[in-house]
């Protein structure tokens, strides 16, 4: 059924309205063709008596484009149809008028509906006044008024359904846009973390390399090897991020299990960095697993790039749920920069149902990033 409805919706409105006009014309014309007029069985119905039928059907072709004008034309034709020979009118059911009323209620603006109601009230008043002359009969008048009200109610129900459908479509579109924005923000944070961390390490290593070439060639060689390793790590992570955008994505995703390697890479670069693990590591949900790695990565980047720290300590406490991550350096503390990295840490923690706090180190010096990944355990 839904497939049939969708296929019908693809039919142009003009074709639908033309078909409706043809059906109404056929329904109103059938009695003129199939019945014999008792008042004049020889001549039958005259052209003047049939012309209002055309006036009832033809305007329906433009019912969506000019609903109020069509309603006025159909109302006038309906009146002419009944007043022409009310006692012998072969088809008293006002099909065209009901469709015109429905169209105004369903597709007309508020102003159009107000004018239409005024026109219908005047028409109803005329029919009620005709009861004094029994033209048309009381039964016919009451049935007509009930059908008018029903047509109007059906039109308003259709309008409300269309409004709800449009609102639902807008909500879906907004939600899709918000989802795209969230995905872009996540990718931007990852790009910031990957490039910021890799470039910071490469800068530190490149600056230290020339100073150690002559006095300590082995250390200089290790520094250049670390530069190459940082570049390869950055390329691997970038390939993974590009994979999120639809390209191929070789390389392992960031996880908490890779934090140890991350810390060692920073330590090899010349920034003394240690890792302390309390408790037994446990599986994490995918979002928390990636967030743990990225949070440590961003905290280390801040320590290397901004704090001018001589030592950084990373602690992972698995003894309780939530998982607690602490990164402490002995540098200058928060330098009052843009703080985008700290904002990213807070957002990553919040996305996993956790929280992040920042402040001076335990002895009042340096800087500490503390993150609780609430509900991290499976």
In N-to-C order, the SSE pattern is: HHHHHHHHHEHEEHEE
What structural class is derived from the secondary structure elements?
alpha+beta
Would you identify the CATH H-level superfamily of the largest domain?
Answer: Histidine kinase-like ATPase, C-terminal domain
Major β-sheet strand ordering: 1-2-3-5-4
CATH architecture of the largest domain: 2-Layer Sandwich
Q: Work out the radius of gyration.
A: 40 Å
Low-confidence segments, given as residue ranges, are: 130-134, 244-250
Biggest sheet details: 5 strands, mixed
Total number of beta strands: 5
Q: What is the residue-averaged pLDDT?
A: 76
Kindly identify the CATH topology of the largest domain.
Answer: Heat Shock Protein 90
> Helix share of residues?
55-70%
Strand content: 5-15%
CATH class label of the largest domain: Alpha Beta
Number of helices: 11
Distance between the termini: 44 Å
The dominant shape is rod-shaped
Count of the domains: 2
């Amino acid at each position: 059924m839904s497939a049939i409805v969708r296929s019908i919706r693809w039919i142009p409105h003009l074709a639908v309205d033309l078909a409706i006009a043809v059906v109404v014309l056929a329904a109103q014309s059938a009695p003129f063709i199939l019945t014999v007029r008792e008042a004049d069985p020889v001549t039958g119905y005259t052209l003047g008596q049939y012309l209002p039928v055309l006036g009832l059907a033809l305007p329906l072709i433009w019912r969506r484009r000019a609903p109020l004008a069509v309603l006025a034309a159909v109302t006038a034709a309906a009146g002419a149809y009944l007043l022409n020979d009310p006692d012998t009118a072969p088809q008293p059911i006002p099909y065209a008028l009901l469709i015109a009323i429905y169209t105004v209620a369903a597709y007309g603006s508020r102003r159009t509906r107000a004018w239409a109601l005024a026109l219908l009230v005047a028409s109803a008043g005329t029919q009620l006044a005709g009861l004094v002359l029994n033209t048309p009969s009381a039964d016919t008048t009451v049935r007509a008024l009930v059908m008018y009200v029903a047509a109007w109610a059906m039109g308003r129900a259709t309008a409300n359904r269309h409004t709800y459908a449009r609102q639902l479509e807008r909500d879906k579109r907004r939600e899709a846009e918000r989802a795209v924005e969230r995905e872009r923000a996540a990718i931007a944070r990852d790009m910031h973390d990957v490039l910021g961390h890799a470039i910071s390490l490469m800068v530190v290593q490149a600056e230290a390399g020339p100073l150690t070439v002559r006095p300590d060639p082995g250390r200089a060689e290790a520094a250049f090897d670390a530069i190459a390793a940082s570049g390869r790590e950055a390329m691997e992570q970038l390939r993974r991020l590009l994979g999120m955008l639809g390209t191929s994505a070789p390389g392992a995703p960031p996880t908490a299990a890779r934090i140890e390697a991350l810390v060692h890479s920073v330590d090899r670069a010349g920034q003394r960095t240690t890792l302390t693990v309390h408790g037994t590591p446990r599986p994490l949900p995918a979002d928390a697993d990636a967030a743990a790695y990225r949070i440590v990565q961003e905290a280390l980047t801040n320590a290397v790039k901004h704090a001018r720290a001589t030592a950084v300590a990373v602690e992972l406490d698995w003894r309780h749920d939530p998982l607690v991550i602490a990164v402490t350096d002995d540098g200058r503390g928060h330098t009052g920069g843009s703080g985008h990295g700290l904002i990213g840490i807070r957002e990553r923690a919040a996305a996993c149902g956790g929280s992040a706090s920042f402040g001076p180190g335990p002895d009042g010096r340096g800087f500490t990033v503390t993150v609780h990944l609430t509900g991290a355990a499976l």
